[in-house]
Specification:
9 helices
Length: about 180
């Protein structure tokens, strides 16, 4: 039986980190891994570097397929808790992504929310530099709230306002919201 046909273990869990650019997705994906038992992490920004970067539906379809393939491969290798971030724009992206994964499994969608002023400051002072042209292009994409408002979602939505939180505080909030993984 191939990896993609192997039935999912009820213990397999996926934590998706979502949010606007500058919300801290990559930082939190990295920060969660050391405290995640039997965990693996995927930052789609690392695996989705292209030139040109078109950021269109075709590109995001490719990105979802790549992330889903890595998730399934990590589970097949025994990593039951996978953290993935930076690849969803809206609920329909999630639905397309979810169809690529076996069932059943537990999915936790952590949406990092941040005030625009703080987000803009983070975007210009972080180690991962972006150009003004890039920030202007990303800012043209309207904020999508369908991930947090989806009535038929098969994930647990966890919205965390990171405006006044540092990385440690954000990680602690996530730990508290997902005791299935992070209970001591």
């Amino acid at each position: 039986m191939s990896t993609s046909q192997r039935p999912a273990s009820p213990r397999q869990r996926l934590i998706i980190i979502s949010g606007e650019e500058g919300a801290g997705k990559s930082t939190i994906v990295r920060a969660l891994l050391p405290s995640t038992p039997h965990g693996a992490r995927i930052d789609a920004e690392d695996i989705g570097q292209t030139k040109p970067c078109l950021m269109d539906d075709e590109f995001f379809g490719l990105l979802r397929r790549n992330v889903a393939g890595l998730v399934v491969n990590f589970w097949a290798a025994g990593y039951v808790n996978v953290i993935a971030g930076s690849f969803l724009r809206c609920y329909s992206d999630y639905v397309s992504f979810r169809q690529l994964l076996p069932r059943p499994l537990a999915v936790f969608l952590v949406d990092l929310l941040v005030d625009r002023e703080v987000r803009d400051h983070r975007r210009t002072t972080r180690a991962k530099r972006t150009t003004q042209e890039w920030r202007d292009m990303v800012d043209q994409i309207p904020e999508d709230r369908t991930l947090r408002q989806a009535a038929d979602a098969d994930y647990r939505y966890i919205g965390i306002d990171t405006t006044a939180l540092d990385v440690t505080g954000t990680v602690q909030r996530i730990h508290g919201a997902i005791p299935e993984i992070y209970a001591s």
